[in-house]
Specification:
mainly beta; Methylamine Dehydrogenase, Chain H; 1 helix
Length: 385
């Protein structure tokens, strides 16, 4: 292993171990409508998978941080969620978002969350070296998948079937079997993203070029050259599958042409800060990035201009668009998830958590928002009709 790869890996591990600065909590600006939490024990036991082979002015900075929730280490989702009772989370309903439940099972921070395309499953990766699969509607933890490296390991669901990918393995979650093994086993943190048609998996490994795997053959079909001293923290396909966005250290976001493997655009996030996450809006109009300079930057892809700078006053790890592209959700170091209106840049809501947040994800139909971070828990948010 090269000196650079060891150094880059250690920097990332130390960064996540240290976390963000933890400000003293202030009063939340709005009621959170949090229902009582019922302390129960899981009714099921997860099994282990058998081994086999133009810049706008910054929006007004929020003056108050949300009051953190008390630790809930002995709680799980109290009851099953009825999807028929949920409304879509939108600009109009953001004020009504409430915590529907909390999932317990991980014993270390939650790094990544991903919903299956049909919304039945939620997958979570953690620094406890597990990937867990949850049946959301029936409130069940289903299985633990093995994970080689815990730090920053990404997971992604295929957009066309219930296949779940990590940087070195693809599982069929319906059969709970391995369907593809990629590479020889990863030793560094990695990130993954499926192409919109589900035929290709992009894998970014610290200290290595980003590569594209053909799912059917298990072969590398494209390699993206990059500077050896510039780790990639996140990758994402554009909705039409023609571009890959890569959030990097040293404050850059690169857009790669999938067909040619060439960089077509480089966005400057912040010269001396890391880009922790990138997200395309589902309508293909925008690209958002967030990281350590306390802002979310939103670019319009057609013009290449930065159209929003969303200031939240603390470092952040995760950012994602709602399915209708009207909202941005950010996982923030002030122990909150924030909901923003994309068009205006307005902060609509701060959802309180017990500790710093790392990851956030909308369900495909937009009725659920999942969040996770340093308190080892997964929170489920929604709007009850």
């Amino acid at each position: 292993m090269s000196h650079y790869r060891v150094s880059a890996w250690l920097v990332i591990v130390l960064l996540l171990s240290a976390g963000c600065a933890k400000p003293e909590p202030a009063l939340i600006e709005a009621s959170t409508n949090i229902p009582p939490i019922v302390t129960v024990t899981p009714s099921n036991t997860a099994t282990t998978l058998p081994t086999s082979a133009a810049t706008s002015s910054p929006t007004t900075s929020p003056t108050n941080s949300p009051t953190p929730l008390p630790p809930t280490q002995n709680t799980v989702l109290p009851t099953a969620i009825n999807p028929q009772n949920l409304a879509v989370i939108s600009v109009e309903t953001a004020a009504q978002v409430e915590r529907l439940g909390t999932l317990i099972g991980h014993t270390n921070r939650v790094m990544t969350l991903a919903f299956s395309q049909d919304g039945t499953y939620l997958a979570s990766s953690s620094r406890d070296n597990t990937i867990k699969l949850w049946d959301i509607w029936n409130a069940k933890e289903m299985i633990d998948f093995p994970m080689i490296v815990s730090d920053l390991n990404g997971i992604a669901f295929s957009p066309i079937d219930n296949w779940l990918a990590s940087p070195d393995t693809i599982w069929d979650v319906d059969s709970m079997q391995v369907v593809q093994t990629l590479g020889q086993g990863r030793r560094e943190p990695g990130h993954v993203a499926f192409s919109p048609d589900g035929s290709t998996l992009a894998v970014a490994i610290i200290g290595e070029p980003t590569i594209l795997w053909d799912i059917a053959s298990g072969q590398v079909v494209r390699t993206f050259a990059q500077q050896a001293d510039t780790p990639t923290f996140s990758i994402e396909f554009s909705p039409d599958g023609t571009l890959i966005a890569a959030g990097e250290s040293f404050g850059t976001v690169k857009l790669w042409d999938v067909a040619t493997g060439q960089v077509v655009t480089t966005f400057e996030y912040s010269k001396d800060d890391d880009v922790h996450d990138v997200a395309f809006s589902p309508n293909g109009r925008y690209l958002a990035s967030g990281g350590t300079d306390n802002t979310i930057r939103v670019w319009e892809l057609a013009s290449g201009q930065m159209v929003q700078t969303l200031w939240h006053g603390n470092g952040m790890y995760g950012v994602t668009f709602s399915p209708d592209s009207s909202l941005l959700a950010s996982a923030v170091c002030d122990r909150s998830v924030k909901l923003w209106e994309v068009a205006s840049g307005r902060l609509l809501r701060s959802l309180p958590h017990a500790d710093e947040m790392i990851t956030v994800s909308f369900s495909p139909d937009g009725t659920l928002l999942a969040s996770g971070g340093y308190d080892d828990l997964i929170y489920l948010w929604g709007v009850v009709r």
